Amino acid sequence: MSPRVPPKLDHEKLWNYAARLLSGRAMTIGELRKKLAGRAEAAGDVDDVLSRLKQMHVLNDRLFADSYTAARRDGAGFGKGRVLRELSNRKVPKLVAEAAVTQAYSEVDEVEHAVAFLKRKLRIADPAEYFKDPKHLQSAYRKLRYNGFSSNATVKALRQWSSVADELTDEPEE
Fold first, then answer.
1. Which of 136, 135, 145 is nearest to 170 (CA)?
2. In sequence order, what are the residues at sequence separation of 6 or more whose Cβ sits closer than 8 angstroms to the Cβ of residue 15?
3. pTM: predicted TM-score of the whole model, two decimal places
4. Cα 120 off chain centre by
5. Cβ 130 vs Cβ 138: under 8 Å
6. pLDDT on residue 174
7. Max CA-CA distance within the chain?
8. Which residue positions in the chain have pLDDT lower than 50?
9. How many CA atoms lie within 13 A of 106 on its CB side?
10. How far does the chain reach from its first CA to its final CA, in angstroms?
């Protein structure tokens, strides 16, 4: 059996499809453009639908980036780098993403944010004892770096529990 190919949509059906997609979750202009382009009969219909949605203020990458950044900062506790990477994957323009992240993290102390993230993720009774094992320390370093915290803030956060945290680097273990 061959895979089912979705039918191409005329302008009105493409508009309804876009509305249905946006009712499910917020999307960026780039994400919606990609979905609509795969279903449109005429390429010009995609631009028309997108421009109508922008005029109606239903589609706005800046507002999307602002709310997404705040949610990832406060809800998941991620650092700047992770949020920037996710916004890039969601096809938010680089300048818009950088502005949203800079604004959202302007009042955040990155070291305290990293400590809170680590405490929430590891849930350890005695972190100082846990981090005596170099494998655990290196693992925590990698976890913080992957989740968007700078190397400097990561080392400062781990220094609270381990005196050898200054020796950590981004080089992979051998």
1. 145
2. 49, 52
3. 0.85
4. 19
5. no
6. 39
7. 65
8. 172-174
9. 7
10. 48
In angstroms, rounded to a whole number, what is the distance separating the alpha carbons of residues 174 and 159? 23
SS3 readout for the chain: CCCCCCCCECHHHHHHHHHHHHHHCCCCHHHHHHHHHCCECCHHHHHHHHHHHHHCCCCCHHHHHHHHHHHHHHHHCCCHHHHHHHHHHCCCCHHHHHHHHHHHCCCCCHHHHHHHHHHHHHCCCCHHHHCCCHHHHHHHHHHHHHCCCCHHHHHHHHHCCCCCHHHCCCCCCC
Domain ranges of the chain: 11-55, 61-104, 110-167
